[in-house]
């Protein structure tokens, strides 16, 4: 179980498969350097960044899905811990940012869509909605995507959002975290902070 969460009454969480760029995005949001790496499974415990003055914390959760050198049981238990964490702190969480690799996401989702299986990211999206947490899809690594609108339209479709993707700017945010281009995400998060009547936190995004 994850146990190092600071006691704060407002939170934004970053979720997503390993290696999609969660910790890189965390660095861009907070200005603080978190360990990032080329190998999946770098982050094993949540990274929390909190502002004492505002009772606000941003949390970079460990990646789920395939992690090199991590046993399957361990991967399953990380997933269970993530689900429990979200359930436990649902009242505080004002948005759940699901980070996707813009270039790989559609293929990964399609590969895992069968009669018995829902892809993790899609499952997580529905899970957040059930708990009343607004999900935001941060479509990262857009620097590697050439057919931008088509790709974003496919991603919208896979999450049950009717294309064109531009109708869903509160939910779909194309970004390139590595280059600090995260404006679309900041805008989406600000909308949800406003909805939660937490305009005081908009200055962080
Ligand atoms: N091309 C490109 N690469 C990126 C971008 N953002 C992150 N990366 C790279 O993707 C790799 C993984 O980034 P991390 O931030 O460590 O990913 P993570 O999701 O935290 O990974 P885990 O901790 O393993 O779950 C690193 O090599 C980053 O430099 C981006 O916008 N574009
Ligand atoms: Mg990480």
Automatic annotation (TrEMBL):
GO biological process annotation, one example: cell division
SUPFAM superfamilies recorded: P-loop containing nucleoside triphosphate hydrolases
Cofactor(s) needed for function: Mg(2+)
MF (Gene Ontology): GTP binding; metal ion binding
CDD domains registered for this protein in UniProt: YihA_EngB
A Pfam family: MMR_HSR1
Annotated keywords: Cell cycle, Cell division, GTP-binding, Magnesium, Metal-binding, Nucleotide-binding, Septation
Domain called EngB-type G: residue spans: 8-195
Superkingdom of this protein's organism: Archaea
InterPro entries named in the record: G_ENGB_dom, GTP-bd, GTP-bd_ribosome_bio_YsxC, P-loop_NTPase
Entry keyword GTP-binding: yes
HAMAP family: GTPase_EngB (MF_00321)
Family of the protein in this entry: Belongs to the TRAFAC class TrmE-Era-EngA-EngB-Septin-like GTPase superfamily. EngB GTPase family.
Function text: Necessary for normal cell division and for the maintenance of normal septation.
Protein name per the record: Probable GTP-binding protein EngB
């Amino acid at each position: 179980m994850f146990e190092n969460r600071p006691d704060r009454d407002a939170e934004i969480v970053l979720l997503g498969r390993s290696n999609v760029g969660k910790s890189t995005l965390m660095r861009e949001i907070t200005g603080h350097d978190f360990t990032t790496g080329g190998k999946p499974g770098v982050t094993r415990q949540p990274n929390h960044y909190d502002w004492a003055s505002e009772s606000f914390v941003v949390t970079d959760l460990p990646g789920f899905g395939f992690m090199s050198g991590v046993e399957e049981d361990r991967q399953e238990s990380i997933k269970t811990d993530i689900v429990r964490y979200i359930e436990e702190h649902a009242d505080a969480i004002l948005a759940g940012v699901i980070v996707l690799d813009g270039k790989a996401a559609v293929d990964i989702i399609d590969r895992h869509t069968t009669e018995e299986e829902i892809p993790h990211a899609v499952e997580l999206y529905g899970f957040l909605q059930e708990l009343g947490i607004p999900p935001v899809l941060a479509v990262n690594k857009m620097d590697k995507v050439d057919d931008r609108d088509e790709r974003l339209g496919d991603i919208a479709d896979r999450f049950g959002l009717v294309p064109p993707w531009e109708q869903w700017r509160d939910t779909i945010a194309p970004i390139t975290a590595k280059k600090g281009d995260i404006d679309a995400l900041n805008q989406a998060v600000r909308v949800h902070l406003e909805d939660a009547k937490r305009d005081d936190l908009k200055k962080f995004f």
